Amino acid sequence: MCPALNDQICAMCCGTKRMVEIRCPSDCPYLATAREHPPAVVVRQQRQDLGLLVEFLRDLNARQSQLFFLIAALIARYKPSELESIVDDDVVQAAGTLAATYETAARGVIYEHRAASIPAARLATALKAALTEAAGGGGSAFERDAAVILRRIEQAARRVNEAGPPDSRAFLALLDRVVSRPPGGNDGNDTPVEPAGESRLIVP
Question: Cβ(136)–Cβ(199) under 8 Å?
Answer without folding.
Answer: no
